[in-house]
Recover the amino acids of this structure.
C-alpha cells in the first residue's frame, strides 16, 4: 500500500494562490461564513487529496451554499492511486450579510490526506461605456414631389 503522506504533486495541487485566503486546512472540512462590507462576488474553493485504499476508491468534494450544492470527484480508481478533487463556486455576498457555507470531502474506499478551503474575492467587472449611435451613412437627398 502507498505511503499515506503528501507528495510534491499533492502539495502543488493544494497550494494557495496569491489572491486567495485559506479558510481551512485539515482532513475533514469546514462549516463557516463569509461577510463583506460592500457587495462582492466571492469564489469559494475546496481541494482535497487522498489515496485509494480499496479497488474502486474515490474522493469527492462538496460545497454547500444557500440554494445549492456543487460537487467534484476523482475516481473510482485502482488501489493505491493518488486522488485529487476540486470544486469552486462563485457567490454574491451582499454588504453586511453573512453567507453561510459548508465545504467538505467524502471518501469512499479512500483515505483523505489533506483538504483545503479557500476564498477569493473576484475583481469587479467594469461596465463598458455606452457607445454613441453611429451616424447614418444614408447620403441620399430628400425627394421633392
Amino acid at each position: 500500500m502507498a505511503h499515506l503522506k503528501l507528495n510534491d504533486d499533492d502539495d502543488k495541487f493544494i497550494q494557495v494562490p496569491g489572491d486567495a485566503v485559506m479558510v481551512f486546512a485539515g482532513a475533514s472540512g469546514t462549516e463557516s461564513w463569509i461577510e463583506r462590507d460592500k457587495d462582492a462576488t466571492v469564489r469559494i474553493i475546496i481541494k482535497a487529496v487522498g489515496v485509494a485504499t480499496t479497488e474502486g476508491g474515490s474522493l469527492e468534494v462538496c460545497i454547500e451554499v444557500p440554494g445549492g450544492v456543487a460537487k467534484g470527484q476523482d475516481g473510482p480508481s485502482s488501489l493505491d492511486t493518488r486522488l485529487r478533487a476540486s470544486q469552486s463556486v462563485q457567490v454574491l455576498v451582499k454588504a453586511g450579510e453573512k453567507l453561510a457555507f459548508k465545504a467538505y470531502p467524502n471518501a469512499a474506499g479512500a483515505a483523505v490526506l489533506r483538504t483545503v478551503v479557500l476564498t477569493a474575492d473576484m475583481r469587479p467587472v467594469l461596465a463598458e461605456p455606452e457607445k454613441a449611435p453611429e451616424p447614418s451613412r444614408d447620403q441620399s437627398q430628400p425627394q421633392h414631389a
